[in-house]
Amino acid sequence: MAELEGAAWPKTDAVDAKADPAAGAMSAPSLTKALVAAPTLAARAPPAVSTGDSLASTDGIVRRVDEDRWLASRFAQARVRQSLETLYAFSYEVARTAEVVSDPGLGRIRLAWWRDAVTGGPSGAQGLPAAIKALMEETPLEAGRVVAMIEARAHDLEAEPFEGWGDLEAYVDATAGAVAHLALQICLAGQAWPLQATNCARAVGRAWGFTGLTRASSVWAARRRMFLPQRLLAHLNLKPEVLFAGGGAHVIQQARLAMLDRARFAFQQARDLARVMPAAAFPAIGYVALEPLYRAQLLAGQEKAPISLLRRQMKLLAASALGRF
Q1: Where residue 216 sits, what CATH number does that domain have?
Q2: What integer pLDDT is reported at residue 115 of this predicted model?
């Protein structure tokens, strides 16, 4: 299950960046024009990222399936943007494993294939597998963190929920947290690794992950799955069968509030740590500036109402210009 379920983007050339890879990030006027020109959301099903897809199609796919990260990546140089898109497309493909297989065994085979693809690589690999492996070697990215991200998705195939908060946090750290960490490695390649970068990536991942899981709770429940820790369920005397049947609304809201409280705390950490990060880090973590918007929706019970594209664009522009979330 991907961290945040997003609506799909229609294909358009209106938002294609024209910046020279050697010229740095887009200028403020150009970036504003590109972001505002982005299309409105359409209700199309997210596409699969074929292992043979050309990298030219990766940009459009990431727009559709991970739009908030895609928007934040517009603040980077063209070459860095392409690397971020490769990472996000890879993350999406691994995260959707539980959604595309009918049997957990097949899901484990799929994850094992991806693990082999990034560690050794199948003979004649092309498209996304070849691109992520090249990115790992050239940046370089931490192979152990990439492998851990793949292995963490095996939990999406299991029926049992997490035992406690620590288990859930480890899962979020290995998924959303790993994406933020690897994105920082891409954006800060060739620079000294900031002292608080690892902690910042972890906080970004937890804020984004906890809120994202809460937003996707109805999807999980429809598949008779849950992410809430067993100890929390026991404390609230909430049985999974009640949740799956749509009952116990008051108790379920308590559980969601506990999750969102952890998201709020993580966001506060991310906001404080981001202030000491270099400007080049923003394309890797800037999307977390949107987390309070989604959290506020959940707290108000309005998660089905989409947050306008323009509002998100303006939020990112302000966060980038002011240097704070």
Answers
A1: 1.10.600.10
A2: 93
